[in-house]
Structure formats: structure tokens, C-alpha cells
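Class, look over these C-alpha cells:
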Amino acid sequence: MSWAVEEWKDGLPGKALQKIQEMEVQLDKLKKERTQKQFQLDSLEAALQKQKQKVSAALGEALFLSSMCAPLNG
């Protein structure tokens, strides 16, 4: 099947083929970079969610302790 994909290049001048090759290499590089950045973003989002859960739990605990101590102070 890959031969059919490459068929459109038949008959193109060498300079054009070279430029196409350079662009294909650049495209592959950009795809790889995008994949790495997406993984990094996903990891950061997961870490953020974990931190939000910790903060929420700590806030809930602080509110609970505050409500338990309020009658003692009043």
C-alpha cells in the first residue's frame, strides 16, 4: 500500500523530491515532539488533580477540626 502513497512523487524533479523528504523528516520530528508534549501535559494534569484532592481533603479535615473546637471555645 505504501507504494501507492508514494506514487504521486513519480516524475518530480530531484530538487522537489529532496524538499519533500526534508518536510517529511520535519513532520515526523514534530509528531514525535507533539506526542512527548502531550504525555508531559497529561502527567502534569494528573499531578494537578492529585494535588487538588489533597488540598480538598486537608480543607475538609481543617473544617471538621474547626467545628469540633468551636463548641469548646464558645
Observations:
- DSSP finds two helices and no strands in the chain.
- Residues 7-69 form one domain.
- The chain has one domain: 7-69.
